[in-house]
Design a protein that fits this description.
The protein contains 3 helices and no strands. It is elongated, with a radius of gyration of 13 Å.
């Protein structure tokens, strides 16, 4: 997307180490952290609850 890890961290308010871990696939972000990052890149989280019969 043309944004550096540092810029993503700064814009989202998430620590740079968290951004780096997520990019490497080692992080396990909270929903709140994920939402902050996705907001910066113009995406959103959509949760769906599956109804059981």
């Amino acid at each position: 997307m043309g944004i550096s890890q540092q810029d993503l961290a700064d814009y989202s308010g998430v620590g740079i180490s968290t951004v780096k871990d997520l990019e490497r696939g080692v992080g396990n972000p909270s929903l709140h952290t994920l939402m902050k990052i996705l907001d910066v890149v113009g995406m959103e989280v959509v949760l769906q609850v599956k109804q059981t019969v």
